[in-house]
Amino acid sequence: MTVCIGAVFERIGKIFFVTDAQLSADWISTEGVSKWKWLNKPGQWIAMYSAESASTFPSVVDRIRAELGNEACGVQKVMAACEHACEAEFEHAVSRDILLPYAFKSVVDFISGGLECLGASLFEQVCGEIRLAHQKFSFQFQLLVVGFDEEFKGHIFEVSGLGAAARYDEPGFHAIGSGAPVALATLYPIPYFCSETDETEIVYRLCAAKFAASSSQGVGPDTSVFCIEQGGGWSMMLKPDVATLHKIWTKEGQPRIPKRAIAHIQEAFLPMAKVEARFKKITEAG
Fold it and tell me: pLDDT digits over 38-74, tens only?
């Protein structure tokens, strides 16, 4: 399906996140899909997603934004908004795809009047369809949320499609999607990873986790790398620069970071104010 990785580095006041750019289902896939969105106007919180349908994520984000508004938010409020949004999206999907043909507008309407209107046999059949949808939605949609609270402390948590949230402030990093097991297996052996203060090391390790996860089914080859800061700044690496880093990683590999990779990251992972100049340099160089 995808891979999305997030990590909070409290000592330097920054959160890094890395994703692929592929949307895939059993029978089709497409590249070039953004896997993240801002959740509130101050730019504190970001959500990444893993899903079989790209249409679910914008709808969930709209629900979250409506609940959060434009003020700074603590982690508990953001978690609750994400849980409510996923629960509401699941109920909407059930009402639209399962209950509407039977003239029920909502799950509540079905529960209160379904047995009387449909009879025991058909009522149980529809209940079985809802149970199956419940199982599928839990695995077919996930959120990975990162951000800073009102006191500028970083947080990271996952939300299942059914609205069950789990925090990962310890160990400070997490991943979702079909590539998550490989990505996490790459990061967990690194001692005190989220105590790291060297941004070059951080970028390389997170990209290496994503590169390794690219072997998983449904994970795309392209890689997006971003960083948000406590003060509101953010940094990124352009697609051609990530491709260069991937070539270095493929040829020179792990566990030691190649010197050329260090030099390249220092040159290519930039504050947004410098990205345009970097883009011009790459374009002119061909």
Answer: 998 767 999 999 987 778 899 999 999 999 988 888 9
Q: How far apart, in whole angstroms, are the C-alpha atoms of residue 262 and residue 267?
A: 9
Q: What is the DSSP string of the chain?
A: ---EEEEEETTTTEEEEEE--EEE-SS-EEE----EEESSTTS-EEEEEEES-TTHHHHHHHHHHHHHTTS---HHHHHHHHHHHHHHHHHHHHIIIIIGGGT--SHHHHHHHHHHHH-HHHHHHHHHHHHHHHHHHHHHEEEEEEEE-TT--EEEEEEETTS-EEE-TTTSEEEESTTHHHHHHHHTTSTTGGG---HHHHHHHHHHHHHHHTTSTT--S--EEEEEETTS-EEEE-HHHHHHHHHHHHHH-SSSPPHHHHHHHHHHSEEHHHHHHHHHHHHHH-
Q: Mind listing the pLDDT tens digit for each residue in 115-153?
A: 988 999 999 999 999 988 887 777 678 999 999 998 999
Note the CATH number of domain 4-94+137-229: 3.60.20.10
